[in-house]
Design goal:
Layout lengths: L8 H6 L7 E5 L9 E6 L2 E6 L5 E6 L4 E6 L5 E6 L3 E6 L5 E6 L4 E8 L5 E6 L3 E6 L4 E7 L4 E6 L5 E6 L5 E5 L4 E5 L6 E4 L3 E4 L2 E4 L4 E4 H5 L8 E4 L5 E6 L2 E9 L2 E2 L1
Antiparallel strand pairs: 1-2, 2-3, 3-4, 5-6, 6-7, 7-8, 9-10, 10-11, 11-12, 13-14, 14-15, 15-16, 17-18, 18-19, 19-20, 21-22, 22-23, 23-24
Length: 259
Amino acid sequence: LLFWAYRSKIASEAEGGREKTWISDVSPASGPGTAPQGVGGDGRLYLADAATGRVLWITNLRGQIRQIRFTKDDSIIYASSGDGYLYKIDTETGEILGRAYVEAWLYRNSLSISEDERYAFTISKIGRACLVDLEKMEVLWWFDTRGGGHATSMTRDASFLALASGGSYGRIVFNFNGIALWYIPRVSWHVQIVNDSYVLYGGMLLDLDGNLIYDLGKEYGGEFVDLEFSYMSEDMSLLITMKDGKICFFKKESIGTFH
């Protein structure tokens, strides 16, 4: 539910009267109604109180802000900007603590962070995938998918990393060192690593070796091919899909079978 949306007079004046606001992320640590809210629009990152909408600070990141993530303890915000950098920002003050070049801004599912919050796996709108050391704010390696980036996912310890793109390498899995383990030359809009053991590409479930476990499209037809979004619960009992505004829920009946 959206209780409020802060619309900047500064942004409105700068854009000739047009107002732009993106609500990008809510802090995970605070309770409902009290969590700080990250808002990015027209290069300005706002931190606002979620209960009142009161703006706490504003930091200019010099480009469209499409992806914001808080750390678990709320101390740090990671934000991607249209200037090509992933920024590390102090939540209390808005001070920029560091940045790493990841080529362009990131789509909504294109910033994955490891369980210990040491690494980030990103893919830009242009298609460059990067593994970033968040302590040093340095890119450890990068890979060009030759097409627009759509989503990333990683195991909790960052030992396996998966991405989805519209390029030649639409579905590809890497190890921590950036070695491509396998890929499928097929466009994908979303990816999820499930339970640190499986990779979900739309309706296709594979193990980390690339072996196909289940394909929703083969069982139910073209309506469930090239899904815009899919999610599988950690216990693998529920599969949720979305395409063309239609959301479907599947319950697991047996191994490799959903209804």
